[in-house]
Structures are given as structure tokens and as C-alpha cells.
Amino acid sequence: MINKPNFRSILRPKGKLQWTLTIIAFILCLISPFLLYYTVYPHSAYHVFSILAMVFSIDPRIMLITIAVIILFGVLTFWKKTYLAAIACLITLCLFSSAMFYQFNGVYSMAKDENISLSIVQNFERSSTYPDLPNNSMKDIVYATVEDGTKLLLDVWPAQNANAGKPGPAILRIHGGGWVEGGRGESPHWNQWLNEKGYTVFDVEYRMPPPERWMVEVGDVKAAIGWVAKNASTYNIDPKRISLMGQSAGGNLAMLAGYSMNSDSLPPSVGDAVVPIKSVINFYGPSDLNRLYDHSLSINYVHSILSQYIGGSPIDFPERYQAVSPIQYVNSTTPSTITFLGLNDHIIPAEQAEVLDQAMASAGAYHEMYLLPGADHAFDTYLGNIATQYTRAKLEAFLEEHS
């Protein structure tokens, strides 16, 4: 009588190769539920799976390549008759695919409801995320020299039609980095996109800690605004059509400079020009730093950067935290503002956009707010992903009306 192999003997790895494939497959299978969990429920900026989920959401190509590798590995395990490993690969594939689906489905569904056309193909294709400076750009332009001799610089990205017809609109872009790092030139695809839409972009540098720079950073931004207005004719721009744009800490500084333009408590670092701001574009910038200090998924990170920027906690310096919170300056004359923030942002909570929206509505100032399902912090770093496609559509419409 011939003994038929039982189910266990079929699944049990045999030989060194099958055992190696099985161990690798089970490691991937153990990782995948954590990735899915932290994709849906992001955690601290210091948590490896939270950071991994953010990277996958910013650049979906990385997730697609990962899924392709899992599929190929699964085919290899099946070919080598390592069926236990093949089952583990199938589970891993399902969980990774679920994470990818979650990251783009929310915004895609929202866009579909609003009849905004988005491209799934563009979500995964190669994009010029870091374009070169255009040939007619001007780099390292000094916009101010402060008391200690430090020269503050900006780059100029002229609009494609900058020399045609009447003066056009300008946008000052203010980089992020938690007020303590980063520099001009980040996310240059936004400069390029704005140039294509007819906007001359001034990519601004500002001083950062140490020491604490809670007055200096916005003061430098205001100095840059004054310089741009003073040199408007040189760059063929209309000084009455200057808008501000920033991401994260840059979004906070954009709001703060625009909203407090008439406030003596936050003067320009150089000069004293008061320049009316046409509109503000806020990408996940906090509006209330007191609330941010107490409410963030990355509370330790937030405490660290705010202490460097401001000099301590809200208990130590309550007046400083109030002074650099844009929400304190909202009134009926506040520039029109558009805010984008991911609902899966692991640093800036949605309430930062919501309290701003409520304050603007109460003051009678124009404000648009878009909370993006599945999008994490810095989602717009990659030009092609679904969340950035959606924001471009909304931003283009906003600028047509408010710039």
C-alpha cells in the first residue's frame, strides 16, 4: 500500500533553500500587518513603521515596486514548491496592497465626488520631482543684510510669460523643516508648476536656530516681501498681487507674515515696508502653536523643535507662543487663504486647520480648507501622487480667483 503525503508534509520546508525562502517570507508576513496598521493609524515621527508608511504615501512608486518584488518572490516560492512560504507571500501581498489602496482611495473618491479628474497612472509614473533651475532664473540674490553682516538670499523663478504684457503675480515660497532645518530649493517642482501657470516665484531663505529665532524667522520673511515689492518692476510683477506659500513650518510663517503685516510686534528684520498680501497658500502649517505643543502624534519631536525655535515651552514663554500663532491675527482683512492637510499627518493634527477655518469664518475672511484622507505629512513632496494632483486642481482654481 502506497502512503499518500499528508498536508503537513507538503507544507513543511525541505532543504536549505526552502527553509531560507520560508524564513524570508515569514519575516515579510510579520512586517506587513504593522505597515498596514501604521498606515491607517500613524504614530510618532520617531517610529520606523510610521516613517515607512509616510514614505510609501509620498511616493507610491516605492510601494508599487515593493509589491512587484513580493509578487516575484511569491512566484519563486511556488516554483520551488515552498508552499508555506507562498501562502505567507500571498498574505503579505494582500496587506501591502490594502495599505496602498487605503493611501490613495480616500482622495480619489473625494475627487470623483467633486468631478475632479485624477490619473492613477500618473500616481505611479516617474516625475520631475527635482527639476533644474530654469535658464532665466536668478540664484543667490541678496534680499537683505542684517546687523551682524549676514546676507539673506533668495532664488527667482520667473514666470514663463514674465516678459510678455503687463506685470504679473508673484508668489514667495517659504520652506519647511520645523523652523530648525531645511532651505530654499526644496520641492522645486512647485516653483516649476507655478511658473507654468504664470507666477514668478521667489524662493526665500530665512535664519534658523540656534539661538531661538521666534521673531527673526517671520521678520526675515517680511523683509523678503518688502524687497520683492520694492523691486517689482525689475521682475515685471505687480506689487499688489503678491501671495505667500509654505509647507509645514513654512506654511506657519506664510500665514504669520501675511496675517501680522500691520502688527508692530513682529517687524521686518530689515526695512519697515507694509505690503498687502493678496493670498496665502498653507500646506499643513500649524495655526496655533499652543495647541500644537500639547496635541501631536509626534509630541516629543514637536516639543524639541518648538523649544529650539521659541526658547522653551508655552509655560516658559506664553507671550511668544501667542505672538507666533497666526490665528491670533485673524480679522476681516486677513488675506484669502487655502489650507491643505492630510488626515494621516503624524505631526500636524487636523484641528490646526479646523480652528483656523473657524476663526476665518467668524471674522468674515475667505478661507478654503481641504482635509485629505490617507495623506501624511509632506505628501506634496512628490508631484504625481493622488493627493498632490487633487491639491493642484484646487490650488489652480483658488489662485485664478484670489491672486
How does the helix and strand content classify structurally? Answer: alpha/beta
Strand order of the largest sheet: 1-2-4-3-5-6-7-8
Low-confidence stretches: none
Give the biggest beta sheet. Answer: 8 strands, mixed
Q: What's the tally of helices?
A: 14
What do you see in this structure?
This protein has an eight-stranded mixed sheet with strand order 1-2-4-3-5-6-7-8, with helices on both faces. Helix 13 (351-363) links the parallel strand 7 (336-342) and strand 8 (367-372). It is built from 14 helices and eight strands. It is α/β, with parallel strands linked by helices and 403 residues long. It is elongated, with a radius of gyration of 25 Å. Helix content is 46%, strand content 14%. The longest helix is centred in the first third of the chain and has 31 residues, at 83-113.
Question: What attributes does this structure have?
Answer:
403 residues, alpha/beta, 8 strands, 46% helix, elongated
What's this, in brief?
Helices cover 46% and strands 14% of the residues.
Write the layout of secondary structure elements.
Blueprint: H1 7-11, H2 15-40, H3 48-58, H4 60-79, H5 83-113, H6 120-124, E1 138-145, E2 151-157, E3 168-174, H7 188-196, E4 200-204, H8 216-230, E5 237-247, H9 249-259, E6 279-283, H10 289-294, H11 299-310, H12 318-323, E7 336-342, H13 351-363, E8 367-372, H14 386-402
Parallel strand pairs: 3-4, 3-5, 5-6, 6-7, 7-8
Antiparallel strand pairs: 1-2, 2-4
Helix pairs in contact: 2-3, 2-5, 3-4, 4-5, 8-9
